[in-house]
């Protein structure tokens, strides 16, 4: 958001502070990219469940400084296993 861009311009270190908050909620920032186009940043976040990611999105998004779009993903091997009807490990 405009407010988020203002915050980052004044305090670029805020990005690392938010990463620590993400970890405190049970997820981990794997990669971050500043991009051009419709989005300013892309963050690859590893969360143990969609519920953890939902909480994270709500917590950070409720501040009004970012707009969050999530794309739940799975590794290709797990995707192929799912297509072949294999049961995920740990189940």
Task: Tell me what the structure shows.
The protein is α+β, with helices and mostly antiparallel strands. It contains 4 helices and 2 strands, in the order ααββαα. The chain has a two-stranded antiparallel ribbon. The longest helix has 12 residues, at 50-61. It is elongated, with a radius of gyration of 16 Å.
Strand content range: 5-15%
Query: Residue share in helices?
Result: 40-55%
Note the run of SSEs as H and E. Answer: HHEEHH
List the strand order in the largest sheet.
Answer: 1-2
With helices defined by DSSP (H or I, 4 residues minimum), what is the helix count?
4
User: What are the low-pLDDT stretches, counting only 5+ consecutive residues below 50?
Assistant: none
Structural class, from helix and strand content?
alpha+beta
Major β-sheet profile:
2 strands, antiparallel
The overall pLDDT, averaged over residues, is 89
Radius of gyration: 16 Å
What is the overall shape? elongated
Distance between the termini: 40 Å
Query: What's the total count of β strands?
Result: 2
